[in-house]
Design brief:
Keywords: Amino-acid transport, ATP-binding, Cell membrane, Membrane, Nucleotide-binding, Translocase, Transport. By secondary structure, the chain is α/β, with parallel strands linked by helices. It contains seven helices and ten strands. The protein is globular, with a radius of gyration of 18 Å. The structure holds adenosine-5'-diphosphate (ADP) (2 copies). The site of one adenosine-5'-diphosphate has 11 residues, from strand 2 and helix 1.
C-alpha cells in the first residue's frame, strides 16, 4: 500500500515569488485498489507523479510504501526505494534502439541480474501483457497501445508493490485505451498492486477507479469512492 501524507511542493522556495504546486495532499491506496487522480492541466498532476516516484523531492510531507517513508531515505536508499514504485509514463518512453524485450530488461540490467534470470523474467512479463510474440520488435514496429503494454511490463520488472500510471492513456485511440485499462485491472488483481492512476481524462477513470481524488490548484478538493462523486468535466 501507499500512503501520501501532507505532500507539499513549493517551487522557488526563498525566491520573491514561490509557487505552491502541491498543497497538503493526503491519500492512501491499499493493495488491490486503483486510486485515480484527476484534474485539469496545471492542477499539479505531473508534479505529484514526480514526487511519488522520487524524481522530485517534496518540500514537506511523506510518501510511505508498505510502512517505509521513502522521503526520509538518503541518496543510497533511493535506488532501492524506486523499486517499490513502477511507473508507466505518457507515450511509454521506450528506448528506440532497443527491442521490446530489451526495454523490459532495462531495470533488471541496472540491478545486475544475470542474463539467464533476466531472460526468463522478461519472458514472463511479456506474457503477462500479451506481447510474447513481439519480443524482438522495436518500438517503431509496435502500435501505441502495444508500446504502452511494454511500458507496463517494464514498470513491473522489479516487482513493485505500487504501480503509477502517469497520463499513460493520453494519445491512445479508444481501442488501445480499452486494452490498457483492462490490462491495468488484470495486473492489479493478479499482483495485488496499489495503483495510482493519474489522468486528465474523466472518461477513463469511471472505467477503472475504485476511489478518486480530484486535484485542483495542488489540492485534493474532492475524495471518495467513485460512485459517491459527482464528477464534472
Ligand atoms: P499538470 O500536470 O496537472 O498539468 P503540473 O504539475 O505540470 O500540472 O504543474 C502545476 C503547476 O506547477 C503549473 O502552474 C506549473 O506552471 C507549475 N510548475 C511545474 N513545475 C514547475 C517548476 N519547476 N517551477 C515552477 N513552477 C512549476
Ligand atoms: P517469485 O518471487 O518466486 O517469482 P512470487 O510469489 O513473488 O514468486 O510471484 C509469483 C509469480 O508472479 C511469478 O511469476 C512472479 O514473477 C510474478 N510476480 C510477482 N510479483 C510481481 C510483480 N510485482 N510484477 C510482475 N510479476 C510479478
Amino acid at each position: 500500500m501507499i500512503e501520501v501524507v501532507g505532500l507539499t511542493k513549493v517551487f522557488g522556495v526563498g525566491s520573491p515569488s514561490p509557487t505552491t504546486v502541491l498543497d497538503d495532499v493526503d491519500f492512501t491506496v491499499d493493495a488491490g485498489e486503483i486510486f485515480a487522480v484527476v484534474g485539469p492541466s496545471g492542477a499539479g498532476k505531473s508534479t505529484l507523479a514526480r514526487c511519488l516516484n522520487l524524481l522530485e523531492r517534496p518540500t514537506s510531507g511523506k510518501v510511505v510504501v508498505n510502512g517505509e517513508d521513502l522521503t526520509a531515505l538518503g541518496t543510497s536508499g533511493l535506488r532501492d526505494a524506486r523499486r517499490r514504485i513502477g511507473t508507466v509514463f505518457q507515450s511509454a518512453s521506450l528506448l528506440s534502439r532497443r527491442t521490446a524485450a530489451q526495454n523490459v530488461a532495462l531495470p533488471l540490467e541496472y540491478l545486475g541480474a544475470t542474463q539467464r534470470s533476466t531472460a526468463s523474467r522478461v519472458g514472463e512479463l511479456l506474457d503477462l501483457v500479451g506481447l510474447a510474440d513481439k519480443a524482438d520488435l522495436y518500438p517503431h514496429q509496435l502500435s501505441g497501445g502495444q508500446r504502452q503494454r511494454v511500458g507496463i511490463a517494464r514498470a513491473l520488472a522489479l516487482k513493485p508493490s505500487v504501480l503509477l500510471s502517469d497520463e499513460a492513456t493520453s494519445g491512445l485511440d479508444p481501442a488501445a485505451t480499452d486494452t490498457f485499462l483492462r490490462l491495468l485491472t488484470d495486473v492489479r488483481d493478479e499482483l495485488d498492486l496499489a495503483v495510482v492512476f493519474i489522468t486528465h481524462e474523466m472518461d477513463t477513470i469511471v472505467r477503472v477507479a475504485d476511489t478518486v481524488g480530484r486535484l485542483d490548484h495542488g489540492r485534493i478538493v474532492e475524495h471518495g469512492r467513485l460512485e459517491q462523486l459527482v464528477l464534472e468535466p
